[in-house]
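yo

u said u wanted the structure for the complex thing, so here. seqs first:
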Amino acid sequence: MAGGSRGCVTLRGSQFQELLDAKHNVLFDCDGVIWNGETAVTGAPEVVRLLKQRGKRVFFVTNNCTRPRENYVQKFSRLGFTEVAEEEIFSSAYCSAAYLRDVAKVQGKVYVIACSGVIKELQDAGVPVVEEVGDEEPGTTIYNCPLDPDVKAVLVGYDENFTFMKLAKASCYLMNSDVLFLATDPDPWHPLRGGRITPGSGSLTAALETASSRKATVIGKPSRFMFECIASQFDLDPARSLMVGDRLETDILFGSNCGLSTMLTLTGVSTMEEAQKYKDSESLERKDCVPDYVVESIADFLEALEE
Amino acid sequence: MAGGSRGCVTLRGSQFQELLDAKHNVLFDCDGVIWNGETAVTGAPEVVRLLKQRGKRVFFVTNNCTRPRENYVQKFSRLGFTEVAEEEIFSSAYCSAAYLRDVAKVQGKVYVIACSGVIKELQDAGVPVVEEVGDEEPGTTIYNCPLDPDVKAVLVGYDENFTFMKLAKASCYLMNSDVLFLATDPDPWHPLRGGRITPGSGSLTAALETASSRKATVIGKPSRFMFECIASQFDLDPARSLMVGDRLETDILFGSNCGLSTMLTLTGVSTMEEAQKYKDSESLERKDCVPDYVVESIADFLEALEE
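structre next:
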């Protein structure tokens, strides 16, 4: 097959059925794929229920680090997904904690610049945390603030309480090259209601990378680790797995990086035009952002599942 | 002359005299060149005095944006430099204000993430400023905080009171492509006493560049603007100007970018070994960081000046 013609296939009738027959595992991104904010994508709860009924294994893979897994279970339940278990949810917060405990085997404390979802996952994983609570003595500056000699890793995620002092302390910790430098995810920004945006973990990470002259190990999509994290618990065959997402540069690239089949759904950020641009590009790297399949919505699974 | 043999010349006797005869303007960086913290480099005040006595024009060109020019005059005086005038001092704060007023001719307010030195220079230049004073109503979030429709530029510098909210607001302002995006200087970090570091303007700028998907126009060295700012007021001939600095990647590159002769002094950050590495490099870009001349200290000027 010519390189230029691969990808962006709109599945019809029996093709969808054949794809489902070939795959045993379906990985869904959350925001923009199965819900938008507090509204489930129409048909999404039924799709998840029917996939499981057909014996498929379903996983949820999200770069969003703001909630611990137990809160995700509550949200799934609230939006009508009745059979989603904590074990099926892989967030960048959970996977960062797993990385620190099981891969890096960090022997010491982690200095965390992130939200409570990350702190909670680290605590659940038994990883000791140094959390900045902003109750410093008056007159504390970067010149005289205490630095904990037991800190062996710095983890950056989404943090609405980010300050110069946190950035400065983290920079000082990272002067020791034995201290690990991790980021939950690379997301540069997130859309908000009313056309505003909010800086993402990737923005805060960029500040710390510049100040420390180091590069962070990024846990979230598109890096391979979140797939490895699932595979370590569920013995996944990449060839029999499908990644469904709404962002070409994270979800689809993640699928390509891990050897999965990929499907773009148009209920979120990326558009068919953007996918086509990647397809028309001459760059091999950009080709990795081209989805194998495109659907309007994951509700398109229903026809194949209800037969 | 073979490309590899140019630069890093240690001047001896009459060579120093010849260089001084050929140059009419001497530009000094401050930190690490004429002083370190609150201590003048030995002989520096005498060098400045004698250069002026010989009819040379002397300028001070610093990326440090923390002080307004009037405070620099006080510091010069305090450290024994008795004849330095405000007009001879070009800081990234002063030059940013000049750029906004004279080059960008900004018609509206500037949202400033920086220290008081920058605010003061903008006010002195008559540029309207929106300054974040941290007195927001309780419950104010990035979802509901007021955004000023008159903001036409965002300026980022060194800011020890940097917060997530400032970053988020600036990101929202920069969604409008008509809003200018400026940074005082690119310095990634600064050394502190006791082996610590503090994040520089470049670190905060990196966060905002990532969150806004835009690139800042950087005013400080090594970009050419600070030289253009001096030249617009003093009619400088680059061929008759010498730039003296302690950092290869800012001071020396700045001199190269502006067509000046360049001199590295070893009383600050960069070393002779680092200069030699750039000289040995095959990359043309790296060659621009090779100084024409190297001195142990600017006190080496004295012998040539006292004759």
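The interface with chain A takes residues 141-143, 159-165, 167-168, 171-172, 175, 188-189, 192-200, 202-213 of chain B (CB under 8 Å). The first helix of chain B runs from residue 14 to 22.
cya
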